[in-house]
Structures are given as C-alpha cells and as structure tokens.
Amino acid sequence: MTAGSGGLPQFHGSCTALITPFKGGKVDEAAFQKLCAWQIEQGTNALVPCGTTGESPTLSHAEHNRVVELAVEVARGKKVQVIAGAGSNSTEEAIAMTRHAAKVGADAVLSVAPYYNKPTQEGLYQHFKAIHDSAEIPVIVYNIPMRSIVDITVETFVRLAELPRIVGVKDSTADLARPLRMRLALGPEFVILSGEDATAVPLLSQGGHGCISVSANVAPKLLSEMHGAWRAGDFKSVQKINDRLMPLHDAMFIETSPAPVKYAASLLGLCTAEVRLPMVQPQDATKARIRDALEKAGLLG
After folding, report:
1. What is the separation, in whole angstroms, between the first and last Cα of the chain?
2. Among all residues, which ones are annotated catalytic?
3. How many Å is the maximal CA-CA distance in the chain?
4. pLDDT digits (tens, 9 = 90+) for 239-277
5. Is the full-model pTM beyond 0.85?
6. How far apart are CA 53 and CA 70, in angstroms?
C-alpha cells in the first residue's frame, strides 16, 4: 500500500461521501465539480463520488461513470484522492464499475457488501476477490450491516487482506470495539475508515485512520481541521470541533440520507435539494432542525 505524508496510509483523514447534485431531474455537472473544487480548497483528503450518499442506486450506469470522471477531472494534479463508489449486489456490475474507475484514473474504489442477496461469508469473500482480481486498483470494502443485512466478519477481512489490493474498510457497524479487533488482526497498515460521523472520533481512538463523512459535504473545513488536530495530538481541539458538529451529524440522519444533507447543501447555495425517488424531500420539521444545526455550527447566518 502506498504511504501518505508523515507515514500515514494513502487513504486517511476527512473523506467526503459526495452528494450528486440534480437540476431538473438530471445530474448538475457544474454544481458537482464546483462542490469537488470547494472540498479540495477546504482541506478534504479524499473525494468519494457515487457512494450511497451520492444516490448511486438511482444513477444510470452512464451517469455513474460520468460522475466519477467529473471528480477525477477536478482532483487531477491536486493532493487529494478519489475513491470511486463501485459497489453492487451484482458482482459482474461491480467489476464493470471497478474497471471503469481504474481506467479513468481513480485512486481506489469503495465496494459495498452485496445488499439483499444475503451472501454467506464465503460468498462475500469470493465477491470481493473477483472485484480485486478484475482491475489494478486498490479496493476499500464497505461494511454496513444495517443496509446490506450481512456483516463481513473480522475473520473474512483477514482472508481478504491477504489479497494485495484489498487495502481497507469503511466500517459502519456502529461496533466501537470492531476497529480495535480489526487492527489487532490485520495490522496497523490496513486502512480503517469510519462510515459514521457521530462515531468517527471513538474509531480514531481505536486505531482508525479517518472517516468517509456525510457532514463533510457542508462542513469540510471543520472536519479537515478535526482530523488534522487528531494527528497533531491536539485532543482539546478535536473535542471542541466534535462537540460543535454533533448536532449537525444527528440532523443529517433524522430522515434517510441523503435527503437531509442535500437540503443542508441547498441552504449553503451549493446545489438544489433535489433527490430522486424513492427518496423524497425532508419534512418541514426536519428542515427546521437542519437549519438550526447549521446555524449552531456557525455554518449558516
């Protein structure tokens, strides 16, 4: 695995699970690239297009590929990684997206555990092995049992980590002992990224390396500063920023993501609040809480 600066792994710090802006039902390419450029300016370490926060289930294959290409275009030549969402419950489809990401210059892919199919641990291993074998690009496995139904065990990760391009995990298990168990089983170089803003700091304390963040869509500078403070050992600043942003983290999931974060982004003038069915706009009470969280974080008004 390629090392980053200061002995850090290549993938670390504040990584933004990017929303996909829509306008009139179509991908708003200009707004998306503007969002990517702003993220880089604010100190974000990695752009993560076409994850579930990017509404990947409702993007056509052509739209998905195009959004990845747009992110790579903006990031090219800059000190930021692109981790392209390329997961599917169809192994063949995941392989096609992985190959495309590698072809256009993404630095890694994020591959979610197959949802609904409910594969066994052996099925999960063979799924990710096939993806690994399909292209010369690092793979970060996304473990989110709440949405995928299946939980990739530590034992399965030990097997996967023997494959040279399976380099890390986005962990959304909400099990705060899991990162420590994984670090002890897999070693310090296997990248462990939180998939939950609210538990990102506890994950760092257990040996994690960063977070693939929803809140970073609207608070990229603060979250970049928080991870920088962690690396510098400035834990008072970490706590101060984390306390400031916790109401925002909570507000982003009052209703199903990414509707709340897209509404928050619209309040900041980043894009419209449009989502695609079956996602719908947040209720008025939710909108009020989102606005209040942004104001209390000092991001609005």
Report:
1. 43
2. 142, 170
3. 52
4. 999 999 999 999 999 999 999 999 999 999 999 999 999
5. yes
6. 16
